[in-house]
Write a structure and sequence with these properties.
alpha/beta, 9 helices, 7-stranded mixed beta sheet
Length: about 230
């Protein structure tokens, strides 16, 4: 009986090791491919790469936004940074679940909820553990060519108030509407830029409307940096 249990444990260990190895390989391949195909460059104009805990928030135009931002982080920073993604997309099948959880170490949230539970709870758990996150306050992809940003949801504000010690960093991702247009299966070979700004200045008495306005303005100001 003991021999059987030992054999089963060894099989589970080997399967876990293989899964981890495959996830690391896919993560490496994805990072290199995303940056190669998009010609992505990173501009740190308002802060420097650091392993301190941060909320990186960005504009949202395509499903590869978080991949490009995540890939732009130096390895020590990337290992402590987890992208936030929509569970209704990333939990559709086993392969997507493997990608978001094992490959990108992401955290998923429900975009629609019953109003009884806190949709931000998975993110709060990650922040309580000391990790950084990649967050998209628009809540969904902006497919409107006439709007640079969709209205921000209130989640970013509530996270900043509950975790005041965590830096909130705006990140503008340029060109991804053209790099990864709706319906495309692979990115088009166009140049993209990931621009990291200065931490937002937040006080305990900052109200939600002012905070969201400040957060949006910080992103739009970064958009202009690319052309300076």
């Amino acid at each position: 009986m003991q021999s059987t249990n030992s054999s089963q444990a060894e099989t589970v260990h080997k399967a876990h090791f293989f899964t981890q190895a495959l996830a690391r390989f896919i993560a490496f391949l994805t990072r290199r491919s995303a940056r190669l195909l998009t010609g992505a460059r990173s501009l740190w104009v308002g802060c420097k790469p650091a392993t301190k805990q941060r909320i990186y928030y960005a504009n949202h135009n395509s499903h590869i936004d978080f991949i490009l931002l995540w890939s732009s982080l130096p390895t020590p920073v990337r290992r402590k940074t987890r992208p936030v993604a929509a569970s209704d997309y990333w939990q559709k099948d086993g392969f997507r679940r493997f990608l978001i959880y094992d490959t990108f170490t992401g955290v998923t949230i429900q975009r629609s909820h019953d109003g009884l539970s806190d949709p931000l709870e998975p993110i709060k758990t990650v922040l309580q553990q000391g990790d950084s996150i990649i967050f998209f306050p628009e809540g969904t992809r902006n497919l409107n060519d006439d709007a640079e940003l969709l209205p921000f949801k209130s989640g970013l504000y509530h996270l900043s108030q509950q975790f005041p010690e965590v830096e909130v960093i705006p990140v503008w991702i340029s060109n991804l509407k053209r790099v990864m247009p709706k319906g495309a299966l692979v990115p088009l070979p166009l140049l993209s830029t990931v621009i990291f700004g200065a931490p937002l200045i937040i006080t305990p008495d900052t109200n939600k409307a002012d905070f969201l306005k400040q957060a949006q303005q910080a992103l739009l100001e970064l958009k202009e940096v690319e052309f300076q």
